[in-house]
């Protein structure tokens, strides 16, 4: 009786070895037949009761060998088929490989963030008239963020900007005006530079305010720089940025680092001064702060204020992006919600 059981195991092994596996379908059939939950090796175990006691152990080992042979053949065939190798099998054989002629799935294109779009436009415009880019650190010392810019210690103007302090002397920069100090300290006039970058204010986040945003600072220092130069430069900028029919106007203002200081409005490019809710029916929208560099600031940066004068300006990038794209909540800009960002794909 034992011989019959051993014979069945031997036949099964021979069948496994001879089983043709040249395609994925055959591989799957093989798997079902010899490794699946109702595989054909299982019934062999029932034969054990037919085997004489002295050979039972040997019989167990034989069936295990059959099982292992099936698994090994399956693994090897699977590797071969997924590797796209020629799997042999007579004159015809078969070649299972990825179909290289299939079209690739369309890549979903990213989009440029609205802040980057606007920032790049601003940079491009000023580059055309000879401004170079300069950058500075986001973590800044008191000197560069405040003192050199004519905010003496305890000066009430420091309260104009809510500051994130790291130590008494170190804070996150509240504006990119800090970069103009670094540039003036490290180079000699003529200086014509713009400084784009991220700034931080300790503000409660709302639809209109955020604790981080971007600014572009501008600085021009040379002999005989006048307010007329400032006006002409910013007029050029406004027309390039918002359209050739854009008008500008200046309102007196105050900044510690400029004297005289002004805020610049542009004619509302949305309603063309007909009156809309963006310009609050005034026909004008505020776009930046500017002024003639205070002689104290030049002196703080070791530039002779008798010989040189300069103008500076600073604008918020989010504000311009929000106006241009009619974004009514600044938080959208920082949330990275893909439904928001996708809307800028066409602006690539
Ligand atoms: N630093 C100012 C701010 O953050 C913006 C600014 C205003 C920059 C006037 C200037 C300037 O250079 O002249 O609010």
How would you describe the overall organization of this protein?
The protein has 348 residues and is of the alpha+beta class. It has 2 domains: 2-96; 114-347, 2-Layer Sandwich (BirA Bifunctional Protein, domain 2), CATH 3.30.930. Helix content is 37%, strand content 19%. It contains 12 helices and 9 strands. The chain has helices spanning 2-18, 24-34, 42-46, 56-82, 114-128, 142-145, 177-186, 227-242, 295-300, 317-325, 331-335, 338-341, and strands at 132-133, 139-141, 170-172, 191-200, 212-222, 248-255, 258-267, 284-293, 309-316. The strands form 2 sheets. It has a 7-stranded mixed β-sheet, with helices on both faces. Strands 2-3 form a two-stranded antiparallel ribbon. Strand 6 and strand 7 form a beta hairpin. The N and C termini lie far apart (81 Å). The model is unreliable at 85-91 (pLDDT under 50). Bound molecules: 3,4-dihydroxyphenylalanine (DAH).
Question: Tags for this entry?
Answer:
7-stranded mixed β-sheet, binds 3,4-dihydroxyphenylalanine, 348 residues, BirA Bifunctional Protein, domain 2, 2 domains, single chain, elongated
Question: What is the fold's blueprint, element by element?
Answer:
Blueprint: H1 2-18, H2 24-34, H3 42-46, H4 56-82, H5 114-128, E1 132-133, E2 139-141, H6 142-145, E3 170-172, H7 177-186, E4 191-200, E5 212-222, H8 227-242, E6 248-255, E7 258-267, E8 284-293, H9 295-300, E9 309-316, H10 317-325, H11 331-335, H12 338-341
């Amino acid at each position: 009786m034992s011989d019959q059981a051993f014979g069945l195991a031997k036949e099964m092994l021979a069948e496994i070895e001879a089983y043709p596996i040249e395609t994925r379908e055959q591989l799957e059939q093989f798997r079902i037949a010899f490794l699946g939950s109702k595989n054909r090796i299982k019934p062999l175990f029932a034969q054990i009761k037919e085997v004489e006691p002295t050979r039972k152990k040997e019989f167990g080992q034989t069936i295990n060998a059959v099982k292992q042979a099936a698994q090994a053949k399956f693994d090897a065939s699977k590797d071969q088929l997924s590797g796209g190798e020629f799997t042999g099998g007579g004159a015809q054989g078969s070649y299972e490989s990825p179909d290289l002629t299939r079209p690739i799935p369309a890549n979903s294109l990213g989009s440029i963030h609205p802040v980057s779009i606007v920032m790049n436009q601003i940079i491009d415009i000023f580059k055309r008239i000879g401004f170079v880019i300069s950058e500075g650190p986001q973590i800044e010392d008191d000197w560069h963020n405040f003192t050199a810019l004519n905010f003496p210690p305890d000066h009430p103007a420091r309260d104009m900007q809510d500051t994130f302090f790291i130590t008494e002397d170190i804070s996150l920069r509240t504006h990119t005006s800090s970069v103009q100090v670094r540039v003036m300290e490290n180079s000699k006039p003529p200086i014509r530079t713009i400084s784009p970058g991220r700034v931080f204010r300790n503000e409660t986040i709302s639809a209109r305010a955020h604790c981080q945003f971007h600014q572009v600072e501008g600085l021009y220092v040379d002999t005989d720089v006048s307010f007329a130069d400032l006006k002409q430069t910013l007029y050029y900028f406004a027309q390039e940025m918002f359209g050739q029919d854009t008008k500008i106007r200046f309102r007196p203002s105050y900044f510690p680092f400029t004297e005289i200081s002004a805020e610049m409005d542009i004619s509302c490019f949305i309603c063309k001064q007909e009156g809309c809710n963006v310009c609050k029916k005034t026909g004008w929208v505020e776009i930046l702060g500017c002024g003639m560099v205070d002689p104290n600031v030049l002196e703080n940066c070791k530039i002779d204020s008798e010989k040189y004068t300069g103008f500076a300006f600073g604008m918020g990038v989010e504000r311009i992006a929000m106006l241009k794209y009619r974004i009514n909540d600044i938080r959208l800009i920082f949330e990275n919600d893909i439904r928001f960002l996708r809307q800028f794909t066409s602006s690539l």
